[in-house]
Specification:
- With 318 residues, the chain is of the alpha/beta class.
- The chain contains 10 helices and 10 strands.
- Helices cover 40% and strands 12% of the residues.
- The two termini are 37 Å apart.
- It holds the Pfam family Aldo_ket_red.
């Protein structure tokens, strides 16, 4: 499978990243193992998670996703073949949040323990922390890189201004730089990323691994009316997409999918993979069969006419 360099790092990733937010939540441990096995069987090895997954579930404390991935890697003995991306910064408790050096140093040890590994391939700032100087955060990451506990660092949910500030600090102080950005970006959610973040990432060779690559499932075509909202726990979020523009996007996806003997989800991901600067869109699956379908997007080459049709149908609001 094709590999893409993540930013200016030596990390080479496939053009698809499996989202681990569902592990321990809507996919139990047994199903999570099946999904992860299917990922490897399909020739992919890139998995994204976070320490906070899935703290939002009643009775969960966070770390459930990392723990399942760790158990799976230990059971399969394949740690050196897998690229693990995880995150720090979201609230894990009243005093366990943010990007201070103390928080990062404590959180990384907790993540390493849950993942049952000695290193993290891509360690990401989950969200910006305005209360901590970026110099402090980047210096903490420098220590982790020097110790071999982290290979590459990335940012998630940063504004263009804050990402540029971080890149400037790294260059000025000789610190590791954010080699990747994880923004919200898909056919339905285009404007915010394309306006300022995309040109910044292209100019600075920052690899982009967009999350919600399928707009929480909307771009699969699963939700076409309000009656469909009850199909999953994410259905309640579909109202914001189900409008004239959303239906126009689904219609274009349907037409192109039919022409290419593909599914709407595969077309939506293939569109993302074809966008400039994109390293690998992130999408999650709750069944192994879903994952097999999603990875089919890596084999789908959309021609200019299809790309133009999708761009026109989904033109971002100004």
């Amino acid at each position: 499978m094709e590999k893409r360099r993540l930013g200016r790092s030596n990390l080479m990733v496939p053009p698809f990243c499996l989202g681990g937010n569902v592990f321990g939540w809507t996919a139990d441990e047994h199903m999570s193992f099946r999904i992860l096995d299917a990922l490897v069987e399909a020739g992919c090895n890139f998995i994204d998670t976070a320490d906070v997954y899935s703290r939002w579930v009643p009775g969960h404390e966070g770390g459930e996703s990392e723990a399942i991935i760790g158990k799976w890697m230990k059971a399969r003995g394949n740690r050196d073949q897998i690229i693990i991306a995880t995150k720090v910064g979201s609230e894990m408790g009243p005093s366990k949040k943010g990007l201070s050096k103390a928080r990062i140093m404590a959180a990384v040890e907790e993540s390493l323990k849950r993942l049952q590994t000695t290193y993290i391939d891509l360690y990401q700032s989950h969200r910006d922390d305005a209360d901590t100087p970026q110099e402090e955060t980047l210096s903490a990451y420098a220590d982790l890189v020097a110790s071999g506990k982290v290979r590459v660092i990335g940012a998630s949910n940063f504004t263009a201004a804050r990402l540029k500030e971080a890149l400037d600090i790294s260059a000025r102080m000789g610190l590791p730089r954010y080699e990747s950005l994880q923004p919200l970006y898909n056919l339905s959610d285009r404007a915010e990323f394309e306006r300022e973040l995309r040109p910044l990432c292209l100019d600075n060779e920052v690899g982009v691994i967009p999350y919600y690559g399928l707009a929480s499932g909307f771009l699969t075509g699963k939700y076409r009316s309000e009656k469909d909202f009850g199909k999953s726990v994410r259905g309640a979020n579909m109202a914001k997409y189900l409008n004239d523009r959303g239906l126009r996007i689904l219609s274009a996806l349907d037409e192109i999918a039919l022409h290419h003997n593909a599914s709407p989800a595969q077309v939506a991901l293939a569109w993302l993979m074809a966008q400039p600067g994109i390293a690998a869109p992130i999408a999650s699956a709750t069944k192994a069969e879903q994952l097999t379908e999603l990875i089919g997007a890596t084999r789908l080459q959309l021609d200019k006419a299809a790309l133009d049709q999708l761009a026109k149908a989904s033109v971002a609001a100004t």
